[in-house]
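Our working data are protein records whose layout never changes between entries. An example says more than a description, so a record of this kind follows.
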Amino acid sequence: MSSMSTSALRLRKKKNVKKGIQFCLMVCGASGTGRTTFVNTLCNRSVLSPHPNLDDPSVAHLEEGIKIKPQTIELELDEEGTRVSLTVVDTPGFGDNVDNEACFGEILTYLERLYDDILAEESRIKRNPRFRDNRVHVLLYFVQPTGHGLRELDIELMRRLSPRVNVIPVIGKADSLTPLELAESKKLIMEDIEHYRIPVYNFPYDIEEDDEDTVEENAELRGLMPFAIVGSEEWVEVEGRRVRARQYPWGIVEVENPRHSDFLAIRSALLHSHLADLKEITHDFLYENYRTEKLSKSVSGEPSASMSGMDTSESLDPQSLASQSVRLKEEQLKREEEKLREIEIKVQREIEGKRQELLARESQLKELESRMGRGDYGQGSGVSGQGVGDRGMSAGGYAEGITPGPNAVPGGFGGEEDDDDVLGGGERR
């Protein structure tokens, strides 16, 4: 069993090395929270360009609104050459306006449009083999490092988007807080998430089903939430080592030092340990829930939840979404079983009808054989024993009072004799 699983893992890894893995990451947060620097640090290259300076008084009063910018890059995860086709979706302009209601709608519409693309592709008779799945698998929401809990803007965004995407809250520019302030800020944020019942992605695990390593790893990651992020595009030499760091008059903050930042933990979770889990939850739970809702609303003619303004506080957490998805699949299986049962009943009825028809024909054949055995077959044709007796024929087939000749044939008028010899007594020829 272990050899089979090992070979399967090797085959999958070989396939991933050859084909590559598709993964989509969305970063969202107000301007100045460190989204651009984080993405460039994560990808180890310049992917997102800095946003223009808005301190110019001539344009400071203008509200451009949110812009959604997807960008795809190729990354190599390990020495074996496993490639990831990473799509980064940036959302510049979010939280910069006085009224951010339109921002919520723009992001939600974008996420649902990607789901609609998958739904339309699944409905095709002949699918496109080159179709690319661009669904967003995780959204990193950057919380401003205020040292307090969540703002109303933060709560509203995560509540609205969590039914459509895996939301992971992070604290941007965490080096602006002292260790005590950072610990208190993490505590307050998680208390707000629990109080408002925001179903964020909390690295779920099952003690009974998962192995000890998985439980320990997920519990550790859950304890780090929200992740304290520090990013830097500069390299600094520290004790003979060149590291990514931010240099201040009071010291150096290393990006990949677990004592300074949670960057290593979130990078490992996104691109290694939980990449497959995030994709699986996106497809099996979030997308299936949207698909069911979309199809049921289209059948009943009602608008979808996003269009009808349904309160997303009633949205479900990942565990509830999982149970709901299982329930929906069970209902679908029941409907299919009922259809199969109806088909089975129909087939049984047809078989019973054919059987009754065969029994009727068999009965007719038996009755016919019985009549032939009794000699009743052919009555009225003048060939029965009764008809022959009436003509005065003896049992040997000769008329009464006539003695058969030496060449006579029973039942006939003679052997080689002509008719004149028998009837008229004429001479032989």
